[in-house]
Amino acid sequence: MLQHELKPYLGALISDIKNELSQKKHELQIVKLNSPVSRIKFISNLSQLAELKGIEIHETSFSTHVNLLHQIENEIEQSEKNLDAVVVNSFGQEVNDHKNEEQVAILLDAFGREISHLPISIIFCLPAFIIDIAYRRAPHFWKSISNRIIDVKPQEDFSREVELLLDDSENGFQKEQSLAHLEEKLEELRQKPDILPTELLPHLMELAKAYFHDKQYEKSFEAYNEILAYQSESNNPVVFAKIMLNIGIILHIWGCYDKARLHYQDSERVFSEINDKNGLSTSKYQLGILYQDLGEFDKAIDYFNQSIDLCKHTKAVSIEINSIINLGSIYNEIGLYKEAVEKYHQGFELARQNHDQKKMAICLSFTGRVYEEKGMYRESIKYFIAAKTLLNHLNLNWMHLVKDSLDTIEEKIGTDEFKKLVDEALRQTVKKKS
To answer: So where are the chain's domains?
Structure first.
């Protein structure tokens, strides 16, 4: 599922390595990828492409116990091949979240001082939280890599929508208020000598949400944690559970999977205790995404199914559709193509019943990808054209993904056959509309 959308990244990296080899120089490239599964697939695809281009790449992970440059030199020395580049998959299982932050920062900063002495080109795949450690605590490393970070967005990320839960008290606010206005209003309230901390909570909640949607995750994180200073589990379990869930989502985005899991599980526990099925379905959905990212598919499937069951007793249709789509993605990942297509059809039908064209398009395009991978190009094109027709009416980041797949099919089967199948698919689409 990664190959098409990674083509530009993979091709650019291979071109960089070839240029470095011709110029006899060595560079460090950083690839930002949070999910361990995505990093493994990215490195596998990179290695396959490198082999096709006659470039010898060696795969490894760093240890937190040895100087990083020394580790690279040791890998080169022990290899039986004449290596052209080394691709590093983070620090393996040694570093989860910020537990080894100080040691990682020391190693990265020392590496930053020695980058001019690289013996080989290096591609370093890292989750966001380690890049954040570099930014905050490893100035020499950060200076070397700040303009060399490739932020990779795998296609499956587009279907994994987070579900923020916010306190009902914020419903009185106008959503179109700008961040600047929200910040100004909160600061005015803070200046009042008789203001109670609890009076700040609705404003902090709204600001935390606004920061999140503006992708200012650190400020959102800080706002939610300030709310927790005033709002404990005992005096308001509903708000506590919602905030724990939202903080978990931010930690998940940063690649802090252990901490995210703990926050999700706290929200899951409290929602279960207060019998909040809507909140519980969302917590289980987010846990499903987390385990999917970690490659623990059995757990992910279990959580998605639990979420779907709970959604049938609530109005959380969006979460139900998302869970079904992600089940389809897992089945496709493990080679259960028939089951994957069934889930995408199920998700499409539920989305259609609820007039959700965005998720209809996602289901159609994912179904197209399954048939594409199986070499069933007539079926694949049919679904891609249907998805493209829907996407023409929506402002989404999906159109280029559908186009990339269609371009790839055209390369494989030839322009004449491709146009024939496209015309056939368009006729079917028009027929269905009439």
So the answer is: 3-153, 157-275
